[in-house]
Amino acid sequence: MSLFISKLSLCYMVFDFTDPSKNTAEKDLKRLTLIELLDFVASGPPRFSEPTILSLCKMCSVNLFGVFPPNYRSARGSNGGENIDDEPSFDPAWPHLQIVYDILLKFVTSASVEAKVAKKYINHSFILQMLDLFEQLILRNLMQKTIVLTEEQLILDRFWRVWLFLRKLIIKGGSGKQ
To answer: What's the first-to-final CA gap in the chain, in angstroms?
Structure first.
């Protein structure tokens, strides 16, 4: 598992995808490393240790809960007078984000994860960040929102105590932010 944790830590670095010519070799290396991590998680490894769970949750948090770039629209949307604001798009970092979402999905649904240990890191704060992410994606009309919603549903199914936390938030009428 130490090699797995080392590879996770390599993926803590977040790149600027608004300029496709910046850090291309590093972006490619990170993408390949993320694919290796996904393959490992999907292979049904032995139990994930607590340091492994911590490192995986940190990697997901760093990559998924960062600051969004300025509203991004691809060049394909420039068809004369059409309104491209209604057209969903992907974040320019999507080639990395998609793999990170897949890693989180495989991790949460893996039999190799002991829920009791994982809930220390997939906690109320993590769930609030997922909800904030979902809200940002809705506001920005990004296609990733379906994937984030699926992730949230799986997390809630696996870590049922989070439902109580969300129920309290709904009753209070707030997002949990002070």
So the answer is: 38
| Residue tagged 């992907």 (tokens) | 90
State residue 123's pLDDT score: 86
- pLDDT at position 152 is 72
- Calculate mean pLDDT across residues 107-130: 88
Beta strand spans in the chain (E): none
DSSP, collapsed to helix, strand or coil, labels residue 89 as strand
Is residue 8 within 8 Å of residue 55, measured between CB atoms?
yes
Q: What is d(CA 156, CA 177) in angstroms, rounded to the nearest whole number?
A: 20
**CA quadruple 65, 31, 122, 70: dihedral, nearest 10:** 10
Query: Would you give the DSSP letter of residue 121?
Result: T
CA 112 – CA 46 distance, rounded (Å)? 6
Give the separation between CA 6 and CA 28, rounded to whole angstroms: 17
Average pLDDT over residues 136-157: 69
